[in-house]
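Write out this protein's structure.
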Amino acid sequence: MLFRSASASDDLTQSFDVAWESISGDCLVVYNSGAVGRADTKIWNGSSWSDYTANYFAFGGGDNTSDWIRIVSDPNSDMIGAASIDSGADWNASIWDGSNWTYPATENAQVEIAANRARTMGAAWESQGGKFVVAAGRNGRGTLYYSNWSIGGGWATSLAAPISLTGWTDDIRSIQLESDPKTNSILASALSQDFDLRTAIWNGS
C-alpha cells in the first residue's frame, strides 16, 4: 500500500528517510513536507499508513525546511534516532522513543551544506551499548562535529557545543557513519572538498 506526499521538497537532496522499529515491526518515514521548522512522520503498522501528528521532529530555529534527513533504528529497542540539516545550515537531532518524538538536541547553526549537494551529516547507533551518535561538518573548517545520546545520560553535549575532531585539509563535503554489528565501535568517514578522505573510530566515549 502506497502513500504519496505531493509536497515533499527538493529533488537534489535526500529530504526523507525510512527505518523500522526493531521490536514492534512498525516502519517510520520521516520527510520534508514543506512545513517550516519540522519534518513530518508517517507510520506503517503492517497493514496501513497513518499520519503521526501528536508532535514532530522539530528544528530548534523553527524557520527552515529540511534538506537532509537521516533516521536510524536502535537494534535493541523501538527507538529511532534522527538527524537533519535544514536549508539554513542548521543541524538538529531527536529521538523517536517508539511512541513520540523526544529528547531534541539544541540546534547548531554553523554546519556545512555542500555546494555539490552531498550529505554533510551522519548518524548511527552502537550495536550493543545504546548510544546514538551524530556527526556533521563544521562550516568553513576542516572539522567534524559530533555528539551522542543515551537513555540514561541524555545528550553528552548539545549540538550547539559539540565535540570537535580536526585534521581535514578543507571543508568536509560528505560524511558516513557505520556501526560494527559485533561491538560498540562506529566508523566515521568524511571526505573534504579537496578529496581528503579521513576516518575515525568511535570507542564508546
